[in-house]
Design brief:
The protein is built from three helices and three strands. The protein is of the alpha+beta class. The protein has one domain: Hypothetical protein apc22750. Chain B (Translation Initiation Factor IF3, 2-Layer Sandwich). A three-stranded antiparallel β-sheet has the order 1-3-2, covered by helices on one side. Strand 2 and strand 3 form a beta hairpin. The longest helix has 19 residues. It is rod-shaped and about 85 Å long. The termini are far apart.
Amino acid sequence: MKKIVSKIALVAIVCVVFVLSGCSGYNLSNLADRGQTVVTLSQNNYKVVKRVKAEVSSTRVFGIGGMSSNYLRNSAISKMYDEAQLTGSQTIVDIHVVVSKANGVFYSKEIMVATGTVIEFTGPNTTDIKLINEQPVNDTNI
């Protein structure tokens, strides 16, 4: 009788671990050096280069697995910066993240799409802007 109770307890513990494993995620992306520059676009010293877009998704089966919403959002923005291939005095402005969710009987899917506008600064002070965007990452706060 004790063996059966211990086996049931073990199965229950394993089930709880699997169910709760999808409730948290680790934010492994480091966006400390991206999107931190504050710029006022009050003068005509920039031009619009292109629009960029990136999409990431996560699927959960029976509520198990997948990534957290915060991790997905950061991943979408990071992927957008990677796809933008910024050069010189370019930066991304007007960043938006749109969330879509689809729920089925046994699964759920969360999709995040990050969009932004790449602008390039023109004029005599563009070298200062480049230096601001290329500040080294401070790894001591990670």
